[in-house]
Amino acid sequence: MNKPIVGQIVYSLNVGNAARNCEQKLTEMTVTKVGRKYFTCLRDGWSERAAIQFHLDTWTEKTDYCSSHALYVSPQEWEDAKEATRICKKINDYFEYGRNSQGISLKNLRMIEDILERPEEVNERRAEESTAFDVALKQARKEFLLSSDDFICDAQRMTVAIPELMTDASKAVTARIRDYREKLHEFMLRLSQKDK
Question: Cα–Cα distance between 166 and 16 in angstroms, integer?
Answer without folding.
Answer: 42
